[in-house]
Amino acid sequence: MATRIPEEVINQVRTAVNITDVVSEYVQLHKQGRNLFGKCPWHDERTPSFSVNEQKQIFHCFSCGRGGNVFQFLIEMKNLSFPEAVLEVAKIAHIDIDQQYLEGANTSKPVSEHAALYDLYTEAAKLYHHMLMNTSAGQEALDYLHQRGLSDETLDLFHLGYAPKESLLLPFFQERGIDYQLLRQSELFVENEDGSLRDRFVNRVLFTIRNSNGQVIAFSGRSLAHDEQAKYINSPESVLFNKSQELFNFDLAKNPVKRSKDIILFEGFMDVIAAFSAGVQNGVASMGTSLTVEQVQKISRIANQVLIAYDGDHAGQAATKRAIDLITQVAPALKIQIINLPDGLDPDEYLRKFGETEFTNALTHGLETPVTFAMRYLKQGRNLANEAEKLAYLDEVLKILATVDNPLERDLQVNQLATEFNVGAASLNEQLSYLIKQTPQDNQARDGKRTRQQAAILPEPQLKVRSRTERAERTLLMWMLHDWHVWQEVTSISDFHFTKLEYETLFLLAQGYWSTHNQYDLGLFLDYLNDNNLARALTDLENDVMISQPSLPAVKQLVDQIMNVTPLADQIKHKMQQISEAQQLGNNELLVTLTNEYIILLRQHHAQQ
Ligand SMILES: [Zn+2]
To answer: What EC number(s) does this enzyme carry (predicted)?
Structure first.
């Protein structure tokens, strides 16, 4: 498979059939109310829990959770890959896909569509760089960067710049007769109330953001003033700049990464630049906020291993944990190691303090696996002298160990835990093998290659008792997808995120979806997700959540519930009580469940701090 099947073709194929006709080949369906019901083809059951929603063109099993559109049905039913499923449906619909596929590949648009905007950014970057390097206005900024250890050569290479206190770009471009609409569209300016424009960046050191081809597409400005204004401001998204898809320095890093297959993920632009000038050329950074699904996908296309080198402070460590979780979910084949710099220093600080040799040493030695990182991270904020907390800690660590394939690594860690906490290795091993049996083999399910035999022994799902916050998240996510106003309202809240990883992942992917689509279409979005587990989650939401006309106060209420109301500290306290009760009762199964819930609460709590 050299290239992907174009989305229009996939959409045409999917809409050419009725999912009911395809499913009926495998399942006897009976009409009941608006939906069709039948016995799930993947497991034995007496009462039907499998349904087809013809209006939405999706299937869903309330019992095993499988769900999706016609493609996911065939992927699960016949062990097909996604392209194979598309071809299969095309056959049913008598669509000659190969021919169209070739045509689609030949008519790809030239990339120069936004040439005028690219030119504008190139000019702006040159001008800002000139201000920094050659003018007295830029002297303070230049001194600052020199102080941070950057040479002129590095400043040239990364096109660092300075935006002066006075208007610079506007008169420059107006003098050249650049079209007003183009200037407006560029996002290099802020619009005044009367519709006139002014420079967006004023008195700031500017980091130039380039796309994968090295074209300038945005700036990030660091304030030089010592007052209360924002330390960093970034270009807003524009037709050139989609921040969830870009990685700082990806253009310069990609060739070194292709050679070594390693990529280093830093937290700040300064870290990337400092490392680069110290000879470490495979570093990138995400755009200010946390790592996104698209960025992980981008990385996984060229690298086999990610080294995470976030800041040593608490926020950096929490971001590391989130990055590990996200990478594991999005690109399970990608190997992860964590660079743990001594003394909680940032990479940039460390480099300045200890010099290049020490720095490159630290990047290649002292690496942690996700397991050793988690063991260290989970200790934070926990009193391990307390029996219940120690137990909760051990249980969480064992749970992570249960996902490690290598028995040797598991053994090593178990012995280390036994020594460190003065507990018997045998009892730890016993608990570990119990947990291993409980851990589903997610990776097989993810690529749709699970055999029917494996599917048949899947345990029935637990009763779905959802917390108020989870119910709020489910409703809000559905409203956001179905109603553009709700989407805009919620995405304008800084720091908004879903606490449940599944919903957060759907939310992150929806951002990518919206950047290339004008409206929410369930079938299209399911194809866009291209992941069986996410398709299941979304189908479950679509079947479960009523889409009414959301009012603004109702939206605010849900956001409030998710972000503020749930008093985590109270919940954590309550959970602790339940844990010690379960301990007294000797109910191990309950203890495991409670402990897991407890850890999730703690993580959320950490993430909020
Ligand atoms: Zn089922």
So the answer is: 2.7.7.101
Measure 35 CA to ligand 1 centroid, in angstroms: 16
Distance between Cα 39 and ligand 1 center (Å): 8
Domain coordinates of the chain in residue numbers? 7-106, 114-234, 250-368
Q: What is the pLDDT of residues 562-586, one digit of tens each?
A: 887 656 766 777 788 788 777 777 7
What's the CATH class of domain 7-106?
alpha beta
Whole-number Å distance, alpha carbon 24 to ligand 1 midpoint, is 15
Sorted by sequence, the CB contacts under 8 Å of residue 482 that are 6+ apart come out as 520, 547
Token digits of residue 409: 């690594």
Rounded distance from Cα 69 to ligand 1 centre (Å): 15
Distance 453 CA to ligand 1 centre (A): 14
Distance CA 32, CA 22 (A): 19
Q: How far apart are CA 563 and CA 576, in angstroms?
A: 22
**pLDDT tens column, 336-383:** 999 988 777 888 888 888 888 888 888 888 789 898 898 888 888 888
Placement of tokens 């200037």 in the chain: 183
Q: Which CATH number describes the domain made up of 250-368?
A: 3.40.1360.10
Ligand 1 centre to CA of 461 (Å) is 10
Q: What is the rounded CA–CA span in Å between residue 597 and residue 604?
A: 11
**In angstroms, rounded to a whole number, what is the distance separating the alpha carbons of residues 199 and 255?**
35
CATH of 114-234 given 3.90.980.10, 2.60.40.10, 3.40.50.2300, 3.40.190.10: 3.90.980.10
Residue 338 has φ and ψ, to the nearest 5°, of -115, 130
Give the percent of the chain with pLDDT over 90.
30
Q: Half-sphere exposure of residue 1, counting CA atoms within 13 Å on the CB side?
A: 8
Among 427, 433, 393, 428, CA closest to 413: 428
